[in-house]
Design goal:
The protein is mainly alpha-helical. About 70% of the residues lie in helices and about 0% in strands. It is built from 16 helices and no strands. The chain is globular, with a radius of gyration of 26 Å. About 5% of the residues have low confidence.
């Protein structure tokens, strides 16, 4: 097993390089980079230029002058001093060849130095740490609820396959899966957050403004009070998917010959279910955990964060892409890709714990 873990760790190196190289290459062909973003501000085609430069180059505004058409490769740069364009390129690191920029970026990332945001005047790590509590709160509780409720319910549905319980719960699950989480979130706001009916839950934020003045138990209540509606909205689809996946996996295993053999030896249904079927049926559930973990912490909460005014990683990543804030884009991509690879390795190790018959090291020989 030690050799297998070492091979997987070594394989992460070219995998990470490939992920970052492909993403970096795509960005080179994408229009509207950070230089163009500032140019649009300087030429009055966007919002406030001070907001874009925010302390990391605001003095460049004073250098704008009336020039004849500049020989520039950037759209909308006519009338700007070529020296100003060169200073913008140097400020954002675009004065170097793409290969040099990529190698410098990877060297910094290996040392976990992700630099500073182009437009927020703070380091990428500080931004991630600042937004992480929101995403962790959503992701952690969604995983606990979806797995903690869906797995027992899926097992129960498999045992009661075809019964009235199975039929009506399947109906509820299918409806829950069909309704988009953001639409359900809006419905919850209208009904329970002061929309048209009740005003039971807050509309925005992770905690109240006076959170730090509350007692410890009041803080816990306040925290879950704010999280109730976002978590219900996000967990709807995950709840449905995991439940049906668990049910189908257990049904497939229950129909196999070894179950009939185990019952013929005198084992009761509970012993067969949890002593034999469980570890085999759970393998497919474990296989989906890394993807569920990463999506819950990063991509899955974007719309819900916007609807409930929660400033988390999903919203930060989306704004970074829109604003072409490449340090945030590539920094978060590197961190979460690395997390995904590590969690994938951990899930393989859990395989061997759930079912000792699986030997990844022997299979690779």
């Amino acid at each position: 097993m030690g050799a297998y873990i070492l091979r997987r760790l070594l394989l992460m190196i070219p995998t990470m390089i490939g992920i970052m190289a492909i993403s970096f290459a795509i960005v080179q062909f994408a229009p509207g980079g950070p230089v163009e973003q500032v140019i649009s501000q300087l030429t009055g085609q966007g919002g406030s230029a001070e907001d874009r430069l925010s302390g990391s180059g605001g003095d460049l505004l004073a250098q704008q002058d009336q020039f004849s058409e500049a020989n520039s490769k950037y759209r909308g740069a006519q009338g700007l001093d070529p020296d100003l364009i060169k200073k913008l390129e140097k400020q954002f690191g675009f004065d170097k060849p793409p290969l040099t920029r990529f190698l410098d970026m990877m060297w910094d990332y290996i040392r976990f130095d992700f630099g500073e945001s182009f437009f927020r005047n703070t380091s990428v790590i500080d931004l991630i740490i600042d937004k992480l509590p929101v995403s962790m709160s959503l992701g952690l509780w969604i995983l606990i609820l979806s797995y903690g409720i869906s797995i027992p319910l899926g097992i129960r549905k498999a045992i009661k396959d075809g019964s009235a319980f199975d039929v009506w719960t399947s109906g509820v699950i299918i409806v829950g899966y069909a309704v988009p989480s953001f639409l359900f979130g809006i419905l919850l706001i209208v009904v329970f957050a002061g929309g048209s009916f009740f005003d039971w839950f807050p509309l925005r934020g992770l905690v109240s403004d006076n959170f730090w003045q509350l007692t410890w138990y009041e803080k816990i209540i306040d925290y879950f009070w704010h999280l109730t509606l976002p978590i219900i909205s996000l967990s709807l689809a995950a709840f449905a998917t995991t439940t049906l996946l668990t049910k189908n996996s257990f049904i497939d295993e229950i129909k196999k010959q070894y179950v009939i053999t185990a019952k013929a030896k005198g084992l009761n249904d509970r012993q067969v279910l949890y002593g034999h079927v469980f570890r085999n049926a759970m393998l497919i559930i474990i296989a989906g955990f890394p993807g569920a973990f990463i999506s819950a912490f990063f991509t899955g909460s974007l719309l819900i964060e916007n609807i409930f005014s929660l400033d988390g990683l999903g919203r930060m990543g989306y704004l970074a892409i829109v604003n072409r804030d490449y340090p945030i884009v590539f920094g978060t991509l590197y961190i979460f890709s690395l997390m995904g690879l590590v969690i994938g390795l951990i899930s393989d190790l859990v395989y061997t714990w759930v079912d000792p018959r699986i030997d990844f090291e022997r299979r690779e020989v």
